[in-house]
Amino acid sequence: MEGKLLGDRYLLQEKLGDQIGRKTFLALDKLAPDITKNSVVVKLLSLGNNFSWQHLKLFTREAETLKKLNHPAIPRYLDYLEIDEADFKGFALVQTYIEAENLEYYLKAGRTFSEAEVIQIARALLDTLIYLQAQSPAIVHRDLKPSNILLTNRSGHQVGDVYLVDFGSVQHLAAQEGGTITVVGTYGYMPPEQFGGRTTPASDLYSLGATLIYLVTGRHPTELPQANFRLQFASLANLSPAFEDWLGWLTEPSLEQRLDTAAQALEALNTQEIRSSITQSSELAEPINNFALKPQYTDIVCRKSTECIEFTIPTPGLGFAILGLASFVTPIILTITSQGIGQGSITILIVLTLLFGAAVAAAIFNYFGKIKLRIDHHQITLKKELWGFKKNILPPSSTQAIQEIYKSSVPYGKNADGNFICLTNKLEIVAGCRRYPFTSFHTFHKLSTQELDWAGTEISEWLGMPIEEKSKSEVKSQKF
User: What are the residue numbers of the active site?
Assistant: First the structure.
């Protein structure tokens, strides 16, 4: 679309970016009062084949956000157009152009950053985040990363001017109350809670920390080793203990262990505050919801990475119900066979044989089959698997639709006083209109409270979502 004139004013010159349904151009404002400063950035949202209402929602939110912001390190809103022409139908957002390269460009070009320079960049970005978090409601960028940070005017010992751009993923915290949630951002720079659609001011701090770690190591977060979801970067950078600890503080996977706001982060950076070894070791041992250790006796296997978490729940073997059915059917078949098969007995024999075959098939699955619960950044699935064959127990749901994780307690037996003893016996993940139970699917093979606690905290930590405690009546009252 280079060379196209929009609104009889903006002449598109060079494509700067290209995403699904959206394109960004450098353009000339032919009506600018200062002809020497007439370069602008034009973002286009097309109503073509790739259009979605979610794209329009984010696009208009970016325009509305920029319109109310006034900060030297953030592009300014200039104009918004609705375009209805033969070769293009859609919307255009016009904002100021900042003549600078992004941090990604500098690192790929071979530039390195000293610790002092990285601290300067950190302070500049924290100043911008403090401004955003002071808005009412607070604003979360949700896509802070090296390619969205511009740097220019380097001089002497000063790293230069730092700009934060691309507010296409921005969210007002008030917008999270109700409605659908949208997972946006960039893998590696997104904190765990953002995968579940949750964002707080601390979410941008994680992205900032991951970006700064990229500057000091030259590696994207996805290329770094991890331990309990924590980025292991210390051996790849020569940093002071205080700054190394501060970066680890920003990139804690658990919200409860991360700094809360940009103001707190700036204060900790300026005072070189280090978390005490006692506090840090206790926090590392208890990520979310008082982390529960994996029971030694369990056969459940948990596989987790930054991309997914998956539980394999083995079935309990030949169960009492199947053995009972087999012991009931087998004598009848033998009796009919020994007394001779009459015409009326043939139908009974066929039915009983089918029942026996079903019992054997169930026994085979019970002995060799497995149940898998898997959550990745796209969907949650619950399947039965046997010798490579897979069957959905429930239809998959989008990860974005996950609303809560809860444990429920039900009356289970009575004590000497005749009062019910309540034990947690159910762990479920609610996604849209479906509940995905964490279970072995056998009433006589209940998972223990310790197994449910362990699995619940693993899922909670990966999603960045707390576990709710519910009574049986509260679970029944939920409408699906």
Answer: 143
Query: The tokens 């059917």 sit on which residue?
Result: 329
pLDDT at 321: 46
Residue reference for tokens 């679970």: 475
**How big is the CA angle at 396 (ends 192 and 434), to the nearest 5 degrees?**
90
What mean pLDDT do residues 219-242 have? 90
Q: Could you tell me which of 427, 391, 390, 424 has the C-alpha nearest to residue 410?
A: 424
Q: What is the DSSP string of 44-106?
A: EEE-STT--HHHHHHHHHHHHHHHH---TTSPPEEEEEEEE-SS-EEEEEEEE----EEHHHH
Residue 29's nearest CA partner among 18, 40, 43, 20 is 40
What is residue 384's three-state secondary structure? strand
Q: pLDDT of 4-35, one tens digit each?
A: 899 889 999 999 988 777 899 999 999 988 87
Compute, in degrees rounded to 10, the torsion defined by CA atoms 403, 407, 411, 413. Answer: 150
Query: Cα–Cα distances in Å, from 60 out to 25, 57, 67, 413?
Result: 18, 5, 11, 57
Residue 244, Ramachandran bin (φ over 0: left; ψ between -120 and 50: alpha; else beta): alpha
